[in-house]
Fold each of these.
Amino acid sequence: MPAPKVASFVAFSSSANSTPNHCNFGNASGLKKEHLDYLKYQYRQDVATGVDYNWVRRHDGTAHAANHSIIGIGRDIDKLGKYLDSWRGRGTHYDKRHGVNTKVAYDKSKGVVIIIEPHRIHAYHFPEGDFMDEKRYPPLPGN
């Protein structure tokens, strides 16, 4: 199957100097279908769903919206897809709210918890101390 055709993931910012700026061409309702198709082709459905989830959450207007903009990735959906995909199968903990089927890992370099659910992989900023206290995210059995 050939890759879905996407014009570019680089757009020009609206600033006067028109600096190239990676963006995802989406809105608060989620990514456009062609971008979801691209992410699904590149990284699988769970990553595409996770990138879309991060995009919606970072634009939902809540106090936690900024937590879903991952340091060093910003609005580049391909970088976010690659980052989330790199965590597939690397869960060390689980989410008490969802049970052991929801694996969790922590990226100290970015201060980010990665949630690895059967249907989506997504991430958000979370204090390392809160992660390490294991109240919400205890280690997986056997770890």
Amino acid sequence: MVLMRVSELAERSGVSATTLRYYGERGLLPAQRSPAGYRLYDERALGPGSAEEG
């Protein structure tokens, strides 16, 4: 499983990091936390068909 920080998810999805953080605060886009406190998202956060299946 590949994890990415909010800045990488923003770049790959075309949604601003601020918006992604807002979604997280509202419980719409849950994130894991790194030991340093960074939000970490897996490829499922990009939506259907974005992660390799199988």
Amino acid sequence: MTPREAVATAHESHPGDLQSLELTTTRSGVVYRVELATAENEADVVVDATDGVLLDSRIERSDSFDPADPAISLSDVIDAQDAMQSANTIIDGPVESWTLTHSDGRLVYQVDFEGKDREIDVDAFTGDVVEIDD
């Protein structure tokens, strides 16, 4: 299942702008965590990355007056595979998870590696490594 398909599955159950997308491993397997937001609600949706089954969804009412980050358009960003390749130039090893999210005013892929206590932030538009968190 591709990231686009995971977001489409999440949109089948909840409306909203894409705020973050994560690919990670849980006890039940590899999943996408999709965060969607409207002016009234925030939805966290979990989709099985293998078969596309909707595993969980939670809706919270938006109480804050803080505007959400700009919506993420997957057609505007580099592929996660390219972001992982950029991160691998800094740390060579298997990727544990990645998250496409806003951080410090920019859209980044945050890439975590198995057995490492470091996170690499890769600019989601250019593929440049922009931060190394130790």
Amino acid sequence: MSAPPAPIPQPTATSSASTASTVTSPTATASPVTSPAITASATAPPATPVPGPVRPPALDWRLRFAALSLIWGFSFLLIKVGTHGYAPFQVTLGRLLSGTAVLALAMVVKRERLPRTARTWGHLAVAAFLLNALPFSLFAYAELTIPSTLAGICNATSPLWGMALSLVALSEDRPTRRRVAGLGLGFLGVLTVLGAWQGFSGLDFSGTAMALLASLSYPVGWIYVRRTLAGSGSSALALTGSQLFLGTVQLALVTPLFTSAPDTFPLWPTLAVVALGALGTGLAVLLQYGLVNEVGPTTAQMVTYFIPVIATAAGVAVLGEQLSWNTPVGALVVLAGAALTQSRPRAAGAAGAAAAAVPPEPAAGTRRRGLP
């Protein structure tokens, strides 16, 4: 993740209980059209409305799924390149500023209204810190000392942290043998990636700890959003855009305290930061909105498992980062464990599929599990 986003996208469907935030999208309501012929006679029977043709998406969902995987997978490479020219807080501020601009434009086009209550804005400020300002900054600082490949793999532990926390914080999320086994398997994969049998030799503890803490921050934020912002009355896009705006304000206040204004604006780091925000934090949210709305949250969330693979490939191929055998092997074990923690009994899965057919109340639009 360098999550959420995505913050992150929430069209008309609900995710499983293990997802700490409900995924919804604002549903459009068609205004009734009154025919002059009908109004002319009060006794005339009501006309049966004929639904208009539904315009298919311009791009097949598989292409958008692949684009989303690539955008989020390359986020860790873009963070690394950004830190070559800017301080970590500056990278995060530029990322949030660019992402907010994209979502603000989308809100203007769709004529979305901002949340109106002070309570909602207060909860969004906390969500912005937990889901955007804190993890984005931690990943940027982590990549000063660890490779982007390791940061991407640490990001994949978010579902593991989320499962462990939800067992404590969400009473409806009951453990099963399979999910507990997935939790254990996932952390075994983390130890494999870190080379525990070698005494963690050559490992930068501070950078790795910050990357793991960033991935832990996401599920803490999801649980907070689920408890405080579900049913707020605002659309998911409006909540997501407002959340990113508040995250930008937080970084704008903090950054001058720890860094000085850059003397120059090097080309590649600048382009990397802008792309990181506009694509990885802005466009990606809109892409996932469409995916969840079209194919459902279960299929859309599968993007999570492609992110560390793409992050690793990008780091090795583009940045020339070194890769030992335990890194990809451990990453596969982490992904297997994460998949098990999200598994559900068949009965529960059928119930969830039925519930997904009923549009829920809009909730905060934030990143889904394990997203950059």
